[in-house]
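Summarise this fold before class:
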Amino acid sequence: MFNCPKCQKAIKTKKSLARHMAKQHPENPGDSPPETINLKAEVLEIKAPKIKKETIFEGLRGYHCIDCGKAINKGIESCPHCGTKLDWSKVE
């Protein structure tokens, strides 16, 4: 949370605070452009679960989703039952 230095209004993000300052408290009313803020983007790497070709339940063979355990076809991008992203690169 950020507080406006002029009116002490609580604002959630820096970008929203800049927009609030430009609209509510401009230094030169009428001719000041909104303040520009440079934000740093962070990239998060998410690994998809591995898929095992083995017997998961007695009597069932083939490919199964590692999260929900339901039978799936080889090569699909995500489980049609639970939506889990699938990584086929480790399957022989």
Summary: The radius of gyration is 26 Å. Helices lie at 14-24. The chain has a mean pLDDT of 77.
